[in-house]
Design goal:
The protein is elongated, with a radius of gyration of 25 Å. The protein is built from nine helices and no strands. It has 207 residues and is an all-alpha fold. The longest helix has 40 residues.
């Protein structure tokens, strides 16, 4: 996805739909159609990136601005995402609809994100507790040995290797490297600004 988005950004700014292009009507229509097709393709890349990387607040702002801009085709996936009960359970929607005036989809989204963060923190604490229990078992096994020998050293070495393997897996969880994420963030921010979606761009910068 990194190369796809960056290549689309570097391919040049598409001409706005209201920009006049000199030439015959047929050529004007062809050039305008090509620019619109390139712009729509880039918009789809940005939508996919926002959803895959869970920039949900930015995606929500972009959905509203796409609808206001009349780009319903590009807003289709975003509408499907925010109306999917698998991501937004009916009980959350019901609580949001019965909340005091002023509640909006963003409040619902923030509540969902807070619940996901709480769940992730609980899972992280559980994983740490399991690792501590494993270390305690290894320490107890060492103390129960009557005399130190090569077997104990081998067991300890194996325990350290297992810990190293867990550390490697944990550090490799992210699908994107730091430099890739930085480049993609810059590309997406540039797209949002060029497209005139200032609210989505501001939300993306904060998020």
């Amino acid at each position: 996805p990194t190369l796809l988005v960056l290549a689309a950004i570097e391919s040049g700014r598409p001409a706005p739909t209201n920009e006049r292009i000199r030439g015959s009507p047929t050529r004007m229509e062809a050039v305008g159609g090509a620019a619109e097709e390139r712009w729509a393709s880039l918009c789809n890349c940005v939508v996919n990136f926002l959803l895959e990387e869970k920039y949900h607040l930015t995606a929500l702002e972009l959905l509203q601005e796409l609808q206001e801009d009349g780009r319903h085709a590009q807003a289709l996936r975003l509408r499907s995402f925010f109306s999917d009960p698998a991501f937004f359970p009916p009980d959350l929607v019901a609580r949001a609809s019965s909340s005091p005036p002023g509640a909006d989809p963003q409040s619902l989204l923030e509540e969902k994100i807070a619940a996901e963060e709480k769940l992730a923190l609980t899972e992280y604490d559980l994983r740490l507790a399991k690792e501590d229990l494993t270390c305690l078992k290894l320490e107890l096994q060492k103390q129960q040995e009557s005399s130190p020998d090569n077997t104990i050293d081998a067991s300890a070495h194996e325990g350290f290797n297992q810990q190293d393997q867990r550390d490697v897996k944990i550090s490799a969880l992210g699908p994107l490297k730091d430099n890739e994420r930085k480049d993609l963030n810059c590309a997406v921010k540039e797209y949002l600004l060029l497209a005139g979606y200032r609210l989505a761009a501001m939300t993306f910068i904060e998020e």
